[in-house]
Specification:
Elements: E1 4-5, H1 6-12, E2 16-19, E3 27-28, E4 30-33, H2 37-40, E5 48-52, H3 57-66, E6 70-73, H4 81-89, E7 93-96, H5 101-110, E8 114-115
Parallel strand pairs: 4-5, 4-8, 5-6, 6-7
Antiparallel strand pairs: 1-3, 2-7
Helix pairs in contact: 3-4
Length: 117
Amino acid sequence: MRIMKIQQVKELTAANVVCGAALLDKEVSSAFASDLMSDVLTLDCNEVLLVTGLCNLQTIRTAEMAEVSCILFVRGKKVTPEMIELAEENQMILLETPYSMYRTVGLLYSSDLRPVY
């Protein structure tokens, strides 16, 4: 398994960078996919990419609490201006992909990005 730059995540998942374009050289060592933010709060999220379809302010707030610095929104979900503002305050990277969660995590896993567990 390997560490992956956010730029590689973007390319693999055909993602659009919504916030944090200057931080694409940042690295993630694993990924976690969930729409349940309570599950995210139970993790040690250092260098974790959060893959989710839950696209609201609570997702950004949960990521802030869990120290997640990069969120990849799946299924074509669109980030709101309020979400971008909060993410910018916390120096987060927000990405949007049209792919399903299943396809997205499959692409990341087959490229050797390890799961959290």
